[in-house]
Design a protein that fits this description.
CATH class: Mainly Alpha
Largest sheet: 3 strands, antiparallel
Radius of gyration: 18 Å
CATH superfamily: Winged helix-like DNA-binding domain superfamily/Winged helix DNA-binding domain
Helix content: 40-55%
CATH topology: Arc Repressor Mutant, subunit A
Protein name: Transcription regulator, ArsR family
Shape: elongated
Keywords: DNA-binding, Transcription, Transcription regulation
Order of helices and strands: HHEHHEEH
Organism: Dehalococcoides mccartyi (strain ATCC BAA-2266 / KCTC 15142 / 195)
Pfam families: HTH_20
GO molecular function: DNA binding; DNA-binding transcription factor activity
Number of strands: 3
């Protein structure tokens, strides 16, 4: 998995965009109304999310619609579960001798 995914997820605005897309694809205009950011700033966020593979873009007429790429999100979740899975002893429960 590319570090670009983690860079994309590190920004709260990009995480908010992903939350907005969780139920349905939205147009760039619909998303932009949820933020107090310049359109050029939002375009940069969309670009990074697309490069990371977290969202897809589809042009319909004069509008661009964005949707989640769930396969990449599943990979991220699986990686996080693997990193944090409990297969080590809990050091808090080990009594200190001495």
């Amino acid at each position: 998995m590319d570090n670009l995914v983690f860079k994309a997820l590190s920004d709260p605005n990009r995480r908010q965009i992903l939350k907005l897309l969780k139920d349905t694809p939205l147009s760039a205009g619909e998303i932009s109304r949820q933020f107090d950011l310049a359109l050029s700033t939002l375009s940069g966020h969309f670009k990074l999310l697309k490069e990371a593979g977290l969202i897809r873009e589809e042009k319909k007429g004069n509008h661009i619609f964005y949707s989640l790429n769930t396969s990449v999100l599943e990979e991220v979740l699986n990686l996080m579960m693997e990193i944090f899975k409990k297969d080590k002893p809990n050091l808090r429960n080990i009594k200190q001798e001495g």
